[in-house]
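To whoever is covering the structure queue this week,

Two jobs came back overnight. Logging them here so there's a record in the thread.

Job A:
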Amino acid sequence: MRRSASVDLKRSPHGSKSSFQELLNGKWRVLTSPALLSSAVVSALGLFMLINLCTLAMRQQAMLDIFNLPSSSSSQVHVSIKKATGTSNVAFRSDSAVQDALPDNQGNQSNRVVIGTQTLLGPECKNLSAEVLPKLQLQQSWKPGRFMQDPKMEFALVTHLGMERLDLLALQCRAWMGRVAAVLYAPMMKGKVVSWHQRLKGRSVLDLNKVLSSFYDELDPLNSCNLEMQLWTEEVESEVLGTLLPNGALRNLALKLANTEVVVLADIHELPSLSLSQELLRPRKLSMVKQILDEGVAMLVPTFATSPSLPAEEGSRLARLLVSGKKEAVLKAWDEGKIVIPDDGHPGQLSSRAIDHRAWMRAETNTYEIEYEEGFEPVVLVLAKDVTWYDERFRGPFGARTAQALDMSQHLTFEVNPLDFAVHIPFAEPEHVRMSADAVYDQEVELYAEVHKDVAASKYTPIARESCTLEKHDIYAPPGFQPHEL
């Protein structure tokens, strides 16, 4: 039995604007020969034809630089540059309907001029422009096996992070016995890192590779996880955009990196208890878990946070202590008021309320089923084959995880692990980073409303590279279109 609560979608999005720059800045010149002057008539005629030929070539090149013409019923042709933070349109006049400029699927192309191409997602992904997907570039990979043969594992902790959070990755690695698949992200502007961390700001990719190699080599192979990590970069248009991680795309990359039968999905500030990975390392226990999961179950791990009344350093120390212990230590800390249900900024604490923490405290050895609630963002143990891809249109901390949980709730039963848990590690975040996230919150809510509507209609496909096909389309000039109108 699953139900969905209503969601407040009354806010209007903050549209951000992108600039469209002309790509054409060519130069040409007409070359003449003295031999042409032997005949005044031939010279004038030849010069006239040459100038017209060069002019036509220039106009043809200008048209080839036009791209991304979306379908529309307007009588103007629009060049649309879609970003995760909004859409900006540049229009130019046309006496014909826009559909005449789009690919001709009727075979009537023999007398048409191709003025460009555009890449669209397939019909299962609404034929959106491929520009909605972040353009990430793999820079470097680090694999285990430096001191011993890389063991083949059937489960992995899957996470992602900005370069500023390496300290949290170290904590996660020390709290987990087994494979960790971590994707790291660095936004770039003109080849330099965009970061609020002064030690990273302005560094090159080569510098980042050195920092990460040093970090990786300093991990104790006998007292830490089996870590595989990748560094991905993205060229961004502004420092503000650099603070909004493409979380959906990064989570998908981490899922691919894991390449295991069973995965634990958690954010970088969430430390799963050591007992969870210890149990999964036992072949008999892992086999029992897989049998449960194979029945269409996603096993949820309750999350707690240290009390905000504790100083950050003391809270971090308490979190590390709790995840190294058992459930009894969590119950004791709860009774003492040292831990709380994570505060997600909503009065109902929707991101974790569905877990029913008090039911978990009473539970002994049996899992218990819960109903999905709108806004749920659980730490989840699940078969990799049952994980739906994250929607890559979401940037920043809101939306991607919530939409994925909604999607998975349509085909999986949610049951709570009665013994294991996770604890949020407190961490500082600069004010401007929080402001950037707040600035796009309304837009993310609007996007989530679209996802919610599609899921309710059973026609949702996550907008992601792994779930959408890509189609190249020629763009034809409409009949009667005049290049000089550019």
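Job B:
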Amino acid sequence: MGRGGYTDEALGSGRFQVSYYTNKLTGVETQHELLLYRIAQVAVDHGYDKFGISRTVRTFGGRAFQSEQATVQMARSTETLVGAHWYLASKVLAEYGPKFNHQD
């Protein structure tokens, strides 16, 4: 993963683990935005409208890379949500799409 990228894994019951890897030159805020953008893509790809992040972990791999990993609960618009801060996938895609779309 020296050049960056992402992974995502379905954990069951609408839960996913999504990670985004970047080089050390990428700022922490930009990396978090890339992670949110990827989570929104995963949500839409699996038929969900919104998501909540229950846990994030940042990792620094020496001088070469850094990663941010999130455990995410996805939901459809008809579902009532409690707990974590919830994001609308369409809003995240609209906000960060113009900034990151060229990286897909």
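Note for Job B: The first strand starts at residue 5 and ends at 12.

Please reply-all if you pick these up so we don't duplicate work.
Q.
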